[in-house]
Write a structure and sequence with these properties.
globular; 4% helix; single chain; 168 residues; 58% strand; mainly beta
Amino acid sequence: MGFFKKVFGGGDKGKPVVQRNALNLKVGDIVSYDLEDYVVIGVLEYNDEGWVWRDYHLESEGKHIWLSAEQDDELYLGIFEKIKMPLEKPEKRITYDGVHFELDEASTARITVVEGQVGARVGNEVRYWDYCDDEEEKFISIENWDGDFECSYGFEIDPHEVSFMAGS
């Protein structure tokens, strides 16, 4: 196949190109955010009684973040980083880095999709607690994986702040 056919198409007519968005990313895809490109190295899909959201494990030059995507009446996106918090059990109010957070939601979800580096298996159940600050601009997410607590700190971003490119 010639160079121009590879670049401009015409070579693989059997496979349509799928436009990537925050709800269909795959391992190997690229997420551009805050002037940096991240590779999707893991995908988790959660289901809480029909309520579905996806978390993407992203990596750029050794830096790891998570992109959370949830479709409600509109698309909600958040950027999260894992943090260390001394925690025996989640409370109604917690403090992190001098900021107070109130419990917003708590429930249990089942993992329905696992791809790449995420440390979970399809069928795993996770208990979670979501907190927000008084201005609802900063968030803490706590997950209990079989007795091990994982904590993440994050904030909501506008869908226009990110772009996606199929890499797989």
